[in-house]
Amino acid sequence: MSTIPEAAAGQLGGRTIRRVVYSESDIATRVREMAEEITAAFEPHDQLLVVGLLKGSFIFLADLVRRIQRPLHVDFLVASSYGSGTVSSGDLQLLYNPQASLRDRSVVIVEDIIDSGHTLQRLIPLLREREPRSLEVCTLLHKRLVTLDPDARWVGFDAPSEFLVGYGLDHAEDFRHLPYIASL
Ligand code: IMP
Ligand code: MG
């Protein structure tokens, strides 16, 4: 387990990091394995489109796509729930829609973490309307609080039910830049 560089983590936002849950090398190893699994799942002629959900997936996606040995395109989506508070609820609003057409493409949605599952439960039907050839989810973390139908095909780690930050995940925008994943 790596030690926490206090200068980077410190007490951002008045919150202190409790423990490192996944170290940089844990993450690198798992991301490499996931990229190999995704590579094996597609043929070189598949029109692969990797769509990251912003902002949380930005570091994971950047590391993942560099290890996928298939031709692919990258786009991003911003999905945001209406309503207040930290509990995801209400309708899903697509703040940024990918420019790329999904029609007949093999689409992989990249998510940082599945918590309540509400985001994907609402997003997937909206994206299916655009008639992709296939639509599957790759998530770095899954808290396994829900079983989605269909569930994510690629899952990095079954995560503990704690609030996790780092490697793209934030708490009120703090901690996204940490190279490891920690709990608050
Ligand atoms: P869901 O719709 O409840 O599955 O929530 C998914 C989104 O909530 C993720 O993409 C994250 O942005 C955020 N989220 C859920 N749990 C955590 C956490 O433990 N740390 C940081 N963000 C989280
Ligand atoms: Mg977030």
Report the CATH C-level class: Alpha Beta
Q: Return the domain count.
A: 1
- Give the integer mean of the pLDDT values: 89
CATH topology: Rossmann fold
Instruction: Flag low-confidence runs.
Output: 83-89
Q: Within the largest sheet, what's the order of strands?
A: 4-3-2-5-6-7
Provide the structure class: alpha/beta
Bound molecules: inosinic acid, magnesium ion
**CATH hierarchy: architecture:** 3-Layer(aba) Sandwich
- The helical percent reads 10-25%
Query: In percent terms, what proportion of residues is strand?
Result: 25-35%
Number of helices: 3
Description of the molecule:
The chain is an alpha/beta fold. The chain has a single domain, classed as 3-Layer(aba) Sandwich (Rossmann fold), CATH 3.40.50.2020. 20% of the residues lie in helices and 29% in strands. Helix 2 (58-65) links the parallel strand 2 and strand 3. Helix 1 packs across helix 2 (58-65). The longest helix has 18 residues, at 24-41. Bound molecules: inosinic acid and magnesium ion (MG). Magnesium ion (MG) binds next to loops.
Give a quick precis of the structure.
Helix content is 20%, strand content 29%.
Structural topology:
Elements: E1 19-22, H1 24-41, E2 48-54, H2 58-65, E3 72-81, E4 92-96, E5 106-114, H3 118-128, E6 134-142, E7 154-158, E8 164-165, E9 181-183
Parallel strand pairs: 2-3, 2-5, 5-6, 6-7
Antiparallel strand pairs: 1-9, 3-4, 8-9
Helix pairs in contact: 1-2
The structure holds inosinic acid (IMP) and magnesium ion.
